[in-house]
Design goal:
This protein is mostly helical and 512 residues long. Helices cover 54% and strands 5% of the residues. β1, α1 and β2 form a beta-alpha-beta unit. It is found in: Cytoplasm. Keywords: Cytoplasm, Histidine metabolism, Lyase. This is Histidine ammonia-lyase.
Length: 512
């Protein structure tokens, strides 16, 4: 498995996922090492001269006018970590925390933060040797950066706090010792360099964006299966309709559906059975496409932010140290609110197609997709559960970025709430995946009711159907199953890539 080299400039979303979820090793670029050393020398010279620089020889936030002597500069940084690590709630999972560590290391490598090389290599060693700090999810305003959660990231580096090692939670000191990594003492500015940035919100939102991209493709697969189940009209996906509106996501969706349905004898043409299909089928390119455009925008913003300097103050190449506001999460807060809205719409349209599949008044299938409704309830309550998730998503999709509470004696008078936006977007993606999984299972059940017609599924939908049926069987009656188990199995097929990989081996699916 190839390593990921970080330079501060070119980290991609796909590389982030490989490191976070697959444990790929990280190496530091030699050129970046020299930038880090040069930046650190500037900070050392400032401390020696006792020049007044925010966060180096002054206190933090509204305490920026309190001078700190050079003898206390290092203690100031440890105090910062100890007092700012006040997160709350469940810990981020290990892949998310690994993503946080990688993004922070990549940002520091750009050479504008004044960190010591040893501190940076210690963070990368932790990533490579499996020391994963315990970081509570809640407690960040998204400006000045993700102060509280990032402080929890730093604690084990100092032999403090808690961390996971080989999946076991222990003290940070013990985790570092078991991994064979020496703890460190922070020098001037280093605590601030490590925690003053948008790293946590970017990591959470980046992983959610990656999952949303996969879910967009799965939603096209679900729609194609539903089209076949209903013997839907394929004319609505004719490219001549979509090029004259010219939205990239819409055009991509129509093309995906045609590729998935290639060779299908389930699909029909307008007037053959009916003149038009309902919106959730006919307008899939327009509806899915809008989410694709939103999430493509978010991916672009994520990759900019992952390769940006987001702490304060900045050590310039010319040797100046300038206070600014790159830690402010507003650019990503808006993007992650948009991500949440785009992902919520995935579930909205999928749930409407579930209803059409199980409702005998809207289809020619038996009620709730079971052979003997009445004695059997079949898929009845799966739609209830999907509707509940869709409704929850609508609450979660309320934007976090329009909110603000002043902090730090009103010095920080407008904050982004970007970490809340990212966490909400993550939860919406998770909910939406379950809804799409339910639709795929229901569509395969519906298709099986048409088996006696001896029709052929499309090139892509056949692969999806086969992937489902390799793990889950047609549901004859309620006594054969516990529906929760069936839904868990189909959801796992979406999460582990089983369905998407089988389809994409035959059909290329795009979001733009």
């Amino acid at each position: 498995m190839s390593k990921v080299k970080i330079t501060g400039e070119h980290l991609t979303l796909e590389e982030l996922v490989r490191v976070a979820r697959e444990g790929v090793e990280v190496v530091i670029s030699d050129d970046a090492v020299e930038r880090v050393k040069e930046s650190r020398k500037i900070i050392d010279d400032i401390v020696e001269s006792e020049k007044v620089i925010y966060g180096v020889t002054t206190g933090f936030g509204s305490l920026c006018n309190v001078h700190i002597s050079k003898e206390d500069c290092a203690q100031l940084q440890e105090n910062l970590i100890r007092t700012h690590s006040c997160g709350f709630g469940p810990a981020f999972d290990e892949p998310t925390t690994r993503a946080i560590m990688l993004i922070r290391a990549n940002s520091l490598l750009k050479g504008y933060s004044g960190i010591q090389l040893l501190t940076l290599t210690t963070l990368v060693d932790m990533l490579n040797k499996g020391v994963v700090p315990m970081i509570p999810e809640k407690g960040s305003l998204g400006a000045s950066g993700d102060l509280a959660p990032l402080s929890h990231m730093v604690l084990p580096m100092l032999g403090l706090g808690h961390a996971y090692f080989k999946g076991e939670l222990m003290s940070g000191k013990e985790a570092m010792a078991k991994a064979g990594i020496d703890t460190i003492e922070l020098g001037a500015k280093e605590g601030l360099a490590l925690i003053n940035g948008t790293t946590v919100l970017t990591a959470v939102g980046a992983l959610a964006a990656y999952d949303a991209i996969e879910l967009l493709k799965l939603n096209d697969i679900a729609a194609a299966l539903s089209v076949e189940a209903h013997r839907g009209i394929i004319d609505a996906f004719d490219p001549r309709i979509h090029v004259i509106r010219a939205h990239a996501g819409q055009i991509a969706t129509a093309a995906n559906l045609l590729k998935l349905l290639e060779g299908s004898t389930y699909t029909t043409h307008q007037g053959e059975i009916r003149t038009q299909d309902a919106y959730s089928l006919r307008c899939a390119p327009q509806i899915h496409g809008a989410s694709k455009d939103a999430i493509a925008f978010v991916k672009q913003k994520v990759e900019v932010e992952m390769n940006s300097v987001t702490d304060n103050p900045i050590v310039t190449l010319e040797g100046d140290v300038i206070s600014g506001g790159n830690f402010h999460g507003e650019p990503m807060a808006l993007a992650f609110d948009y991500l949440g809205i785009g992902a919520a719409e995935i579930a909205n349209v999928s749930e409407r197609r579930i209803e059409r599949l199980i409702n005998n008044q809207l289809s020619d299938f038996p009620s709730f997709l079971v052979k003997h409704p009445g004695l059997n309830s079949g898929f009845m309550i799966t739609q209830y559960a999907a509707a509940a998730l869709v409704s929850e998503n609508k609450v979660l999709a309320h934007p976090a970025s329009v909110d603000s509470i002043p902090s730090c004696e009103n010095q920080e008078d407008l904050v982004s709430m970007g970490t809340i936006a990212a966490r909400k977007a993550r939860d919406i993606v998770e909910n939406s995946r379950r809804v799409v999984a339910t639709e795929i299972l229901a569509a395969c059940q519906a298709i099986d009711f048409r088996k006696e017609e001896n029709r052929t599924l499309g090139k892509g939908t056949q692969a999806a159907y086969d992937a489902v049926r390799a793990k889950l069987s047609f549901i004859e009656n309620d006594m054969d199953i516990e529906i929760y188990d069936e839904l868990e199995k189909i959801t796992e097929l979406l999460k582990d890539g089983s369905i998407l990989s089988k389809v994409e081996a035959l059909v290329e699916l795009n979001i733009q």
